[in-house]
Amino acid sequence: xxxxxTLYTSSAxxxxxLAREFxxxxxxxxxxxxxxxxxxxxxxxxxxxxEALGMNGSPTSASFSLMKRYQKGKKTLFHIDLFRLSxxxxxxxxxxxxxxxxxxxxxAEWPDPLAAMMPQDRLEMDFTLCGADNRxxxxxxxxxxxRVLAEELWQSQNK
Length: 159
Fold this sequence. Notes:
Blueprint: E1 4-9, H1 12-23, E2 31-35, H2 42-52, E3 67-72, E4 75-81, H3 87-90, H4 96-100, E5 105-109, E6 123-129, E7 135-141, H5 144-157
Parallel strand pairs: 2-5, 2-6, 4-5
Antiparallel strand pairs: 1-7, 3-4, 6-7
């Protein structure tokens, strides 16, 4: 059974569009880890998801605030950015409360310090710069929910 898929985008607009299509697949309760260097498109992706979910306010790089919560009706989106933090620094920041809302979507940039506190079933997205505005986005599923999400996104892009 496949647990890894690769997608490509060639502009920030295309990355944002991919995020909008991804948002349409979200049912609530998903955890998505976003990895990649600065400028790889992680925050652009988060903005596209938030926009598609109808969230008020445009997410910014959460490096300026570790966690932002966006609410629209019954939908909740948590945007986390743990750039420059270590695992020991995140234990007392209240991330456990995010998991109490079983329908909230969690998008975490620079997520490694948080990994031990999150459920194993999560989608990991690695953004790689490939020259100019080209990006390779590798999806890795770590459980049944994330596997369905990754397969649906990959299939929507490869019709």
